[in-house]
Each structure stands twice: as structure tokens, then as C-alpha cells.
Amino acid sequence: MPKVSDDRLAARRREILDGARRCFAEYGYDGATVSRIEKATGLSRGAIFHHYKDKEALFLALAHEDTERMADVAAEQGLVQVMRNVLANPADFDWLATRLEIARKLRTDDSFRAAWLAHSAELDAATHARLERGREAGRLRNDVPTDVLQSYLDLVLDGLISRLASGQPTDDLTAVLDLVEESVRIER
């Protein structure tokens, strides 16, 4: 039997992730049934679950992918820039509308919570390091602990995602993000 190339395996995983992302965006976590994921990807459940153990593993792979992308931006440009990217390109993050379902699972499913927190750690670390560098450079407030600034920004990100997920207007959110950014900087 011929061996499948690494490039072909990567392409198949990409195909699965892209279809699953669309499915989660349209139906939410609970509504993204295996048969809907099959339809969205155009692949059989055997082909999908050859690459991912189960639906949760597939979902967490998407979370990890987004976390890596967001962490790269947060490390270089800050968490507010991540929020600006989410606001500017909501279709790239539309599957995050599952946040309400995620919140429920985080409260009720210990193994899911552990896996989710492990994926979130990368973004948290990048944000924390960026805040520390900003503080050391004299650009950020130093009257509030870094952990508090980070929690504040995390809450704003969660609120932004919830607002986008619920379909509320976003016209004024660029100005809101300007205000958030100003609130963590040192006045000059």
C-alpha cells in the first residue's frame, strides 16, 4: 500500500479543520453533529476521526490554531490588536460564537476545562510578556498589577466576542478599543 505524504496528510487536516470551523460557526458546538461535520467537510466520519480522536479534539484543534495566531499578534502588537483583528475580520473568528457553549462546558466538564486552559495558556503567556515589556519600557500603567491589566483585557476580549456572536452592532467598537488601549497606557 502506498504511503500518504506528509503534505497530503496536512492538506487533509486543513480540509477537516476548515469544514469543522464552518460547521461550528453555523450550528454551535452542540449542534455541530458528526453528520453535519461530515457534510461540511465532504468526508466520512472515518476520514475525519482518523485525524482527530473525536469532536472535542477537533474543536480544541481549532482553538489551538486560533490561540497560536492570536498569541503571535499579542506578543508583537498586544491583545488590543488581537481584538482589532477580530473586529476587522469577524468571519475569521465566527466559530467563536460557540463561547456561550464553551462557558457551560468549562463549568461542567473537567477534562474539557483542562484542555481549553492548556490551549489558552499560550495566549495568556504572550499577553503577559507583552504587558511586562510595555511596563518596563514605561508605556503602560504601573499603578495596577500586570495580572489585573491582563484580566481586564481578557474581559474586554470576551465581551467583544460575545457581542459579535450575538449579532449586535459593532459600529462604535473601534472607538471602544481606542478607549481600552488608552486606559492601560501611561498618560504623556
UniProtKB/TrEMBL annotation:
One MF annotation (Gene Ontology) recorded for this entry: DNA-binding transcription factor activity
Superkingdom in the source lineage: Bacteria
Keywords carried by this UniProt record: DNA-binding, Repressor, Transcription, Transcription regulation
InterPro entries hit by this protein: Homeodomain-like_sf, HTH-type_TetR-like_transc_reg, HTH_TetR, Tet_transcr_reg_TetR-rel_C_sf
Pfam families membership: TetR_N
Gene3D superfamilies: Tetracycline Repressor, domain 2 (1.10.357.10)
Quaternary organization: Homodimer.
Record protein name field: TetR family transcriptional regulator
Organism: Gordonia amarae
Lineage: Bacteria, Bacillati, Actinomycetota, Actinomycetes, Mycobacteriales
